[in-house]
Amino acid sequence: MTPSIIRFEQVGKTYPARRGTPDVAALSGVDLAVPEGAIVGVIGRSGAGKSTLIRLVNGLEQASSGRIIVDGIDITALSESGLRQARRSIGMIFQHFNLLARRTAYENVALPLEIAGVGAREIRARVEPLLDLVGLADKRDRYPAELSGGQKQRVGIARALATRPRVLLSDEATSALDPETTNQILGLLRRVNAELNLTVLLITHEMGVIKSVADRVAVLDGGRIVEDGATYEVFARPRHATTRSFISAVTGATLPPYVAGRLKPEPEGAGEALIRITFTGTHATDPVLSRVSRLLSVDLNIIQAQVDEIAGHPFGVIVVGIPNEATTISAVLNAVQRLDLGAEVLGYV
Hints:
Elements: E1 4-15, E2 24-35, E3 39-43, H1 50-57, E4 65-70, E5 73-74, H2 80-86, E6 90-94, H3 105-115, H4 120-133, H5 149-161, E7 167-171, H6 179-196, E8 199-204, H7 207-213, E9 216-221, E10 224-230, H8 231-236, H9 241-251, H10 257-260, E11 272-279, H11 288-296, E12 301-310, E13 313-323, H12 326-338, E14 342-348
Parallel strand pairs: 3-8, 3-9, 6-7, 7-8
Antiparallel strand pairs: 1-2, 1-4, 4-5, 9-10, 11-13, 11-14, 12-13
């Protein structure tokens, strides 16, 4: 097992009442381990507690209960001066960049080093390679107003790396960017993770971000972790309804409206049973449908299909219609499951 560099142990965060309103429990009983060197994504809807969770890691918020251990240090037990020291090993990039408008790209990256009292020669030795790493060596003297959104975020990443942190926190870092720029920034995060052996903890409300970059994923709902695990395993076998909802948005698991509108939970006479087959593991690229069709002499009507790659592994979801006969349905389910693929009856049309 890879050791954890961040651990949440029964962490809770409650915001006190204001003007007669009740206390707000943002997080409750959170247990989460972030392996060293991994990219771990935390996904949840608005109000799930994502921003609170990530701000607890570097002490921008204080936990109401539990402990948060970062690189062997209990963040929840530190004084303000201790937090300032600990933050040097915890970089953070923000959704809206948080660059200083009157400082150039170089000067923005240099800022945390200046605050730490690093000399000008050492600052130059660190900042110039970082600007090169994020692809902005030729933009060192540009001000934020002269940079695109993606370039601003690259400056933010370089600034977060200036103090040579062990952990990088990403607070919705791509949600303000267009899809192409988002892919570029996610690619940069993967590169930083690989080249610097940097642990990345990111929060997002987009499952596409998790699919593209995360080794592991935790699903936050109502201030609690409802599911977590390796990204591929969570995509292949989601257990919680919130997880399934997020995954359906990026795997094509949501039925087309013209089919969903006719779907019934129980069979009514003739028609078709709809079966969703999830293609994973060693048989993910096998010709399963043709094999099952020949073996059982059953016509399979493809309603929907999508093939993708999750965490470097093939992954597909296909919805098929088969004759609404109990023996046929049972035979198809058994044949598919013997191949270690997921199969479930969605309903009947």
